[in-house]
Write a structure and sequence with these properties.
It is a single chain. A hairpin with a 3-residue loop joins strand 1 and strand 2. The protein is an alpha/beta fold. The longest helix has 21 residues. The protein folds into two domains: 215 residues, Nitrogenase molybdenum iron protein domain (Rossmann fold, 3-Layer(aba) Sandwich); 164 residues, Rossmann fold (3-Layer(aba) Sandwich), CATH 3.40.50.1980. Helix 2 packs parallel to helix 7. Strands 7, 8, 9, 10 and 11 form a five-stranded mixed β-sheet that branches. It contains 15 helices and eleven strands. 39% of the residues lie in helices and 10% in strands.
Length: 399
């Protein structure tokens, strides 16, 4: 997919998310479990329930997979499967990467393929970054006809996402597709929306465990979780003291020659996991600047000069190589009369933030890159911080 195509996809998605988030009514679908009003901290209990339920139906991981089983995925609740799904759809790159990390082929479709940045797969043995066989569900909306054509056994999409953000969809449409094709059972943990009051958020690995239960790959999940924990332990042992870690400003430039930015506050959702794991703080904290996800507003250079962040990280419309990022954004800021006054620009501490979405593999890659960006004195640019071959082995079932 060309850069122009990615640019258009990003604009289209921003338009419909803005419309859906502010115009359409929120609220969980009727028929969901009562846990929709539960404390988000209860998600660990929900995860344990899902794993137990799946294990009861399938006592051993080498057992046959043709027996019915159930998995609890909030906010939908308990979902039944007659057999392990063979075809699947993911709402975004987070869910797509969870399945890929468990050894599945990439999903048949995501809402926007341009937002699934598979360059992170390039150095994992046996894993291609190609998206040639994937479909973008978003084609001036999402049609039931396309979903019927794909015929997926499971859709990792929160039904509330369909009802609140997709034009011309209502509860009956989701129920129809559930009956005719396969269940919708995702969780929008990567961000916050208007219907998220008392929402049962999952952490990245809680959500991945749900995918593992659906596809009966709990052994791979445990191996991935162990790999991640070991990676973080080694990484965090090398971090400087907290008072020596930088404050970062997360921004999305309004164009390739930006005069305005969409600000993002460093939050506790999945999208910000790697920054939290590195123990950095939000340069916008304490200011009156609200996150783009809250009010859809923009800021210019004046408030940035007042805050003067140590590091600026840019969410951009598409993945760019280091050279392309330098030529597109860093050079522009250095030559800009006002931007050039920022400490981060003067010190060359303007970096790509990557995309918002992440599953296990994307998270490892993002965390490694962020560690090298933020702590260059500790982490060498050419250093490998996580084992790519181990990921390949886990995907292949070589636990």
């Amino acid at each position: 997919m060309s850069s122009n195509s990615n640019d258009q996809s990003e604009l289209t998605r921003r338009e419909y998310v803005t419309c859906g988030g502010t115009v359409l009514a929120g609220g969980l679908l009727s028929g969901c479990t009562g846990s929709s009003g539960s404390d988000p901290s209860d998600s660990e209990t929900a995860t344990e329930t899902a794993t137990t339920t799946a294990t009861e139906s399938k006592p051993a991981e080498t057992a046959a997979t043709d027996k019915p089983y159930r998995v609890t995925v909030e906010p939908v609740g308990e979902v039944s499967f007659e057999t392990v799904p063979q075809t699947w759809v993911a709402e975004n790159a987070s869910w797509a990467d969870m399945g890929v990390a468990l050894g599945l082929t990439k999903p048949s479709a995501v809402v926007l393929t341009g937002e699934y940045r598979t360059w992170h797969y390039e150095d994992v043995p046996g894993l291609s970054p190609s998206k040639s066989d994937m479909t973008s569900l978003w084609q001036d909306g999402i049609s039931k006809e396309l979903l019927l054509e794909i015929d997926a056994g499971v859709h990792f999409i929160d039904p509330n996402y369909m009802v609140n953000l997709i034009p011309n969809w209502d509860r009956s449409d989701v129920e129809e597709m559930h009956e005719r094709v396969g269940p919708f059972c995702g969780n929008t943990s990567f961000s916050t929306y208007s219907w998220h009051e008392d929402y049962p958020y999952y952490s990245l690995y809680e959500a991945t465990e749900k995918v593992a239960a659906v596809f009966q790959r709990q052994d791979r999940f445990r191996a991935l979780s162990s790999l991640h924990e070991g990676f973080l332990d080694r990484l965090q042992e090398r971090l400087p003291p907290e008072d020596q870690r930088p404050e970062i400003a997360l921004l999305s430039p309004g164009s390739t020659e930006p005069e305005t930015f969409y600000p993002y506050r460093l939050g506790d959702r999945t999208a910000y996991k790697h920054w939290r794991d590195l123990g950095v703080s939000d340069a916008l904290a304490g200011s009156e600047i609200q996150s783009f996800t809250s009010d859809r507003g923009t800021i210019d250079y004046e408030p940035l000069l007042e805050i003067d962040p140590e590091v600026v990280l840019l969410y951009t419309d598409t993945h760019r190589t280091d050279t392309a990022f330098e030529d597109t954004y860093r050079s522009f800021l250095q030559d800009h009369d006002t931007a050039s006054q920022l400490t981060a620009v003067q010190n060359g501490a303007v970096y790509p933030a990557g995309g918002m979405y992440q599953g296990p593999i994307l998270n490892l890659s993002k965390t490694e890159r962020a560690a090298k960006q933020l702590f260059p004195d500790e982490f060498d640019e050419d250093e490998t911080l996580y084992d790519r071959q181990r990921i390949a082995d886990i995907r292949a079932g070589d636990i």
